[in-house]
Design brief:
Helix content is 40%, strand content 17%. The chain is α/β, with parallel strands linked by helices. The protein has one domain: Alanine racemase (TIM Barrel, Alpha-Beta Barrel), CATH 3.20.20. The chain starts with a helix and ends with a helix.
Length: 228
């Protein structure tokens, strides 16, 4: 089931990209594997999936230490300060940087590990009180502050729009993040302004996200099925 799901999703990603004149190769599928067993992740890996996203550092730690070293692990949950040291060591990318305190901690631990840590800035485009992320109004100031942290590589932006069963409800939020990324790109705010990452879109709305410029889509239930 997992293999066939991955195949179908990658075909859907390619179709969506081609319909809007994009290269399917510029879009990465991130398998959201929180609360999924190592055996299921291994099955996905055998089917060619290389990028996985986890929400909890402790849960991810055992998986990361016991699965293939060639897996690229992204942290996509709310990161607590006391988990920053482990996160800097375990993950390839932190997608949810939204506080200067966390960014400074990650930079410190990445420096101690003699590594450069890729990050995305999480933006609360929908201005939901219950969600993490900087507000769009504070984005420019925040990303300029991050630029002083030499062991962090600011690769792009990430968002989670307000939930709706209608994917079209997500479109204006995805469009706003794309516009924000373009403005920052034109100002040279990212580490590589020729290749800016936009992490947006999940199982229910990743096609719309691709149409609005996503370069990374986060799909969990669409690959693994419903979580227990």
């Amino acid at each position: 089931m997992i293999c066939s799901n991955i195949t179908k999703i990658k075909e859907t990603i390619a179709d969506a990209a081609l319909r809007c004149g994009r290269d399917p190769g510029e879009i990465t599928l991130l398998a959201v594997s929180k609360r999924m067993s190592a055996s299921k992740i291994e099955e996905a890996f055998r089917c060619g999936q290389r990028y996985f996203g986890e929400n909890f550092v402790q849960e991810a730690k055992e998986k990361i230490n016991n699965l293939a070293p060639s897996i690229a692990w992204h942290f996509i949950g709310h990161l607590q300060s006391n988990k920053a040291r482990q996160a800097a060591r375990l993950f390839t990318m932190i997608e949810t940087v939204d506080r200067l305190k966390i960014a400074r901690a990650l930079n410190k631990y990445a420096s101690e590990l003699d590594k450069y840590l890729d990050i995305l800035v999480q933006v609360n485009v929908g201005l939901e009180r219950q969600k993490s992320g900087i507000t769009p109004q504070n984005g420019e100031q925040f990303i300029q502050q991050l630029a002083t942290l030499k062991n962090l590589r600011i690769k792009g932006l990430m968002t989670m729009p307000p939930y709706s069963p209608d994917p079209e409800k997500s479109r204006p939020h995805f469009r706003a993040l794309k516009q924000m990324a373009t403005e920052f790109q034109n100002k040279g705010f990212f580490t590589d302004n020729t290749s800016v990452m936009l992490s947006m879109g999940m199982t229910s709305d990743y096609i719309v996200a691709i149409e609005e410029g996503a370069t990374l889509v986060r799909v969990g239930t669409g690959i693994f099925g419903k979580r227990t």
